[in-house]
């Protein structure tokens, strides 16, 4: 008997993967109540449908479910393959073919743009569809373009992705090695579990970040969250940042629920607790930090998904005391990462990144020999204690002050095409305006106990700052008078003198005796946002006269 042509029927994927449209159709059948999640009860109700349409989901339900349920997001991720480990994805990509496709699509520009995606859609779909589907995820620089380095990182797996992220971090070589070792350990444990071995790793992903402010603890915490998500340890790359006030309440019985609420909020990602040592510091009044610690320790016993991976951050010496006072925490934390202070040379690199990111540039002599000259200037004109207490934050202040110095010069010459180049003089001026660091937490550093060296250096720094500020105002005043004299005849002798006071950014009272026009120019020269209205009769700390070539320091 002659049979007609057989109807074509696309084979169902054997690996549990479906198109997004198919996945949504199956989900709508499961989640009839529109709750956003399904349980074992829902699966049993639709058992016959699933055995026919999606038997792999029944077999792999335990690996998809979290807390006894499967969310819509987790189900769709499972169906369309988003949860596939990066290492598996890498094995399926022919890197030679991928490079050939990139060169063809990107062209001489070396960057794939949205217009290129549309123009070469068919070619991309045939070689590497994720470039169309996950363009924003591949675009690590968030520039709305994709470079070869970014595409290679995405196709290569978590190891390549991690190296790409670490390459963007200045310095911290010991820390980078610690993070690489952490990555290797986590990947090996995950492979052991996937092979059916019951390894005891639950709770051992919790970690300590110890180091001074400005060393990149929060930024690296985001990298860790993304890394754990890519490996498959946590469901999302969510990072929840909190301090003591977000965990501890004011009254009895409120701290436990308040802390638990934060734990629930972060349970699918990472909980970053900054200045964690403050939880166990005695404030001299009713303190419930201990209750928050107990609540956190209870959650640390739960596996990822039921509780977040926790990162405890703070100063190295304080974190040591914190761990010694809380042995239960110490037993539950598997990793400690050390964030060292930046060297002047590394600060120079960071400052250059900030300058370029803002659209400015450094003078050529500052950039030569890997910013050696810039590093020398920073080291010579800033206090070591300020560098230790601010680190990367110091560079942000330096750029702000250096730009103000550049703007002051450009304003005097009334440039129609203002310069973008920051000079060594601008950097020196910026360094002089950095205030000395305060004593941390109202205490003196242990290494300075018993002597007055630190106090003396801070006082000297304040004096240098005051002198620099006065000299800057005098220079600006002379420049303003020189420019104004070209068009306006000054008649100071005919105008009575009077006094006024303004607060500079370092809270030093300045009493200025000028003619009205000169006083107005001096007031305009001070761009301090804290400047108050002119006042008369205040006791001077620094007295300035128009005829002075140098400021005269007086006793209060």
UniProtKB/TrEMBL annotation:
InterPro entries on file: AAA+_ATPase, ATPase_AAA_core, CbxX/CfxQ, CbxX/CfxQ_RuBisCO_ESX, P-loop_NTPase
Domain of life: Eukaryota
Keywords: ATP-binding, Nucleotide-binding
Biased composition (Basic and acidic residues): 545-556
Sequence segments annotated as region (Disordered): 1-20, 531-556
SMART domains linked to this entry: AAA
Transmembrane segments: none
Gene3D superfamilies reported for this sequence: 1.10.8.60, P-loop containing nucleotide triphosphate hydrolases (3.40.50.300)
One Gene Ontology term of the molecular function aspect: ATP hydrolysis activity
Domain AAA+ ATPase: 203-440
Family note: Belongs to the CbxX/CfxQ family.
Protein's recorded name: CfxQ protein
Source organism of this protein record: Symbiodinium natans
């Amino acid at each position: 008997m002659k049979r007609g042509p057989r109807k074509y029927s696309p084979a169902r994927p054997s690996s549990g993967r479906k198109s997004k449209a198919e996945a949504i159709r199956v989900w709508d059948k499961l989640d009839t109540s529109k709750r956003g999640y399904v349980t074992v009860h829902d699966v049993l109700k639709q058992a016959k449908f699933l055995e026919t349409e999606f038997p792999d989901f029944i077999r792999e339900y335990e690996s998809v479910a979290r807390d006894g349920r499967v969310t819509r997001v987790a189900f769709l991720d499972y169906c369309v393959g988003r949860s596939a480990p990066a290492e598996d994805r890498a094995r399926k990509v022919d890197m030679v073919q991928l490079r050939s496709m990139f060169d063809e699509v990107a062209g001489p520009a070396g960057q794939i743009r949205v217009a290129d995606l549309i123009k070469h859609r068919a070619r991309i779909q045939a070689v590497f569809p994720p470039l169309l589907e996950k363009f924003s995820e591949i675009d690590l620089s968030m520039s709305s373009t994709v470079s070869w380095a970014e595409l290679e990182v995405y196709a290569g797996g978590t190891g390549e992705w991690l190296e790409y992220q670490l390459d963007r971090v200045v310095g911290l070589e010991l820390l980078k090695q610690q993070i690489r070792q952490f990555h290797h350990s986590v990947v090996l444990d995950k492979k052991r579990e996937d092979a059916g071995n019951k390894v005891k790793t639950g709770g051992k992903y919790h970690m300590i970040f110890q180091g001074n402010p400005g060393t990149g603890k929060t930024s690296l915490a985001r990298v860790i969250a993304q890394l754990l998500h890519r490996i498959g340890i946590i469901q999302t790359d969510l990072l929840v940042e909190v301090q003591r006030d977000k965990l501890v309440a004011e009254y009895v019985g409120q701290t436990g629920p308040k802390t638990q609420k934060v734990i629930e909020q972060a349970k699918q990602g990472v909980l970053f607790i900054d200045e964690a040592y403050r939880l166990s510091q005695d404030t001299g009044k009713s303190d419930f930090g201990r209750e928050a610690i107990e609540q956190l320790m209870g959650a640390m016993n739960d596996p990822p998904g039921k509780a977040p991976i926790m990162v405890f951050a703070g100063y190295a010496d304080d974190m040591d005391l914190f761990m010694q006072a809380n042995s239960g925490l110490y037993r539950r934390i598997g990793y400690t990462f050390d964030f060292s202070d930046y060297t002047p040379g590394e600060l120079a690199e960071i400052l250059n990144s900030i300058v370029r990111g803002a659209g400015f540039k450094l003078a050529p002599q500052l950039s030569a020999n890997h910013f050696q000259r810039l590093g020398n200037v920073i080291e010579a004109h800033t206090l070591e204690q300020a560098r230790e207490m601010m680190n990367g934050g110091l560079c942000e202040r330096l750029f702000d002050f250096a730009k103000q110095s550049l703007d002051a010069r450009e304003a005097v010459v009334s440039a129609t095409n203002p310069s973008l180049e920051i000079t060594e003089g601008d950097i020196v001026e910026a360094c002089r305006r950095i205030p000395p660091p305060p004593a941390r937490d109202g205490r003196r550093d242990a290494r300075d106990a018993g002597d007055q060296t630190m106090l003396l250096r801070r006082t000297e720094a304040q004096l240098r700052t005051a002198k620099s500020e006065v000299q800057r105002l005098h220079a600006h005043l002379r420049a303003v008078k020189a420019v104004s004299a070209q068009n306006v005849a000054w008649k100071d002798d005919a105008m009575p003198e009077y006094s006024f006071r303004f607060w500079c950014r370092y809270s030093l009272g300045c009493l200025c005796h000028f003619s009205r026009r000169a006083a107005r120019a001096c007031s305009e020269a001070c761009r301090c946002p804290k400047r108050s209205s002119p006042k008369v009769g205040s006791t001077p700390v620094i007295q300035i006269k128009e005829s002075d070539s140098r400021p005269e320091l007086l006793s209060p």
